[in-house]
Amino acid sequence: MINHLKTVKDNAELRSAIEDVQAEKVKFEVRLGQSKPIYNAFKAIKESPDWKTLSDARRRIVENQITEAVLSGVSLEDDKREQFNKIEQELKRLSEKLGDNVLDATKKFEKLITDKKEIEGLPATALGLAAQTAVSKGHENATAENGPWVITLDAPSYIAVMQHARNRSLREEVYRARITLASSGDLDNTVLMEQMLKLRLEKARLLNYNNFAEVSMATKMATLDKAEELLEKLHRASWDAAVQDLEDLKKFSKDQGALEADDLKNWDIRFWSERLCESKYDINEEELRPYFSLPNVMNGLFDLAKTLFGVEIEPADGLAPVWDKDVKFFRVKDSSGSPVAYFYFDPYSRPSEKMQSAWTRGVVSRSRVLSPDGTSSRLPVALMVCNQTPPVGSKPSLMTFSEVGIVFHEFGHALQHMLTKEDEGLVSGLRGIEVDAIELPSQFMEN
Predict the structure, then answer these.
(1) How far apart are CA 4 and CA 40, in angstroms?
(2) Straight-line distance from the first to the last Cα atom of the chain, in angstroms, rounded to the nearest whole number
(3) Burial degree of 50 (CB within 10 A; 0-12, 13-18, 19+)
(4) Would you give the DSSP letter of residue 427?
(5) Known catalytic residue at 422
(6) Catalytic one among 286, 410, 422, 424?
(7) CB 362 within 8 A of CB 417
(8) Over its length of 447 residues, how does the chain's per-residue pLDDT go in tens digits?
């Protein structure tokens, strides 16, 4: 719960509280991971004559627990274990600090604009959002038409500038700010990352691996060789097409009289790609927004879930506590009307307190052992978090097509967690699945 709140409702009090207990928490996690009695018990199960009679799920749990114990340092002798445990403590501390710096640096960047010429090209939705942000920063009379406007590095604001702002110097300033996040001053992550890489290598060698990539792949389906082979295959297949795309973009921008046509920079690519798309295919993502209001999208998504999986999804607001007024809670029912799962949905970006990106996690998994009444199963609860365009004024959130894709993607993860029939909690829903396998249901729903 605390880790979740840290990503969606970050504040100074929460950071302080986490800092107070962090060392004890990591110490406990390490002690649990290195428990010889638990490790030996799982090994005894695997080596027993009953092993072949266990269900696939139970065998999976045993094998996962043995692998995790080894990666947690259970086999290390005293000196090496002590060194390993110090590394774990320090990696956790550095990781927390790194994340805090990224959020603080994102929060710190604000570009106040008072001259409408400077943001020429920005669509109405982006201007409305920029004015609404300005109001929240103390510019009470800000309007979409007359400003002032505040540009931030939060995804909806940043992407709108990169795709639509005709002011090249504004695009460059915002791009450079985003790409160099937390790389200077008090919030510089450079040294932290160097320390983390060094510690990860030390950790890998203590566990008898050549490097940390091998440690990471130990719990995945693919091997390091296979991953590198796939990357090289993609590289060879895509290179010529990418070179041609760039040439097309240069030619198009030159035809449009762009001074930068012969020397397109990273802050030009998205802008001219958008113009080429409009010219070539008569597609303007902004014009699609009115068709994708959030209520419409969720209704369509739930209708699709009913068609594909035979489940009904209904609002259950008030049934569970939420961390923000915009968070919604839903109940999932089977064809007989019985609840089978629940999920939270936190849709909008909140630059001052919420981590960027989108993710889905399990709050609790389906479990027979942890069932409240000891007979049926505890029902799973999922958590979907996005960072899409928030509502402006009294209008609902009007989504871009890519934002719609993200919601469908995350819902694929949520469905895998919620619709499982597996009662063994450690391998139920999203738990106990390799992270390179877990993207299949999300890609299915996205496509």
Answers:
(1) 32
(2) 31
(3) exposed
(4) G
(5) no
(6) 410
(7) yes
(8) 998 999 999 999 999 999 999 999 999 999 999 999 999 999 999 999 999 999 999 999 999 999 999 999 999 998 999 999 999 999 999 999 999 999 999 999 999 999 999 999 999 999 999 999 999 999 999 999 999 999 999 989 999 999 999 999 999 999 999 999 999 999 999 999 999 999 999 999 999 999 999 999 999 999 999 999 999 999 999 999 999 999 999 999 999 999 999 999 999 999 999 999 999 998 888 889 999 999 999 999 999 999 999 999 999 999 999 999 999 999 999 999 999 999 999 999 998 899 989 999 999 999 999 998 766 899 999 999 999 989 988 888 999 999 999 999 999 999 999 999 999 999 999 999 999 999 999 999 999
CA–CA separation, 157 and 151 (whole Å): 6
CA–CA separation, 428 and 61 (whole Å): 10
Pairing of strands 339-348, 381-388: parallel
Cβ-based neighbours of 33, under 8 Å, separated by 6 or more: 68, 69, 72, 73, 74
The DSSP secondary-structure symbol of 379 reads P
* Token pair belonging to 130: 């920029």
pTM of the predicted protein model: 0.90
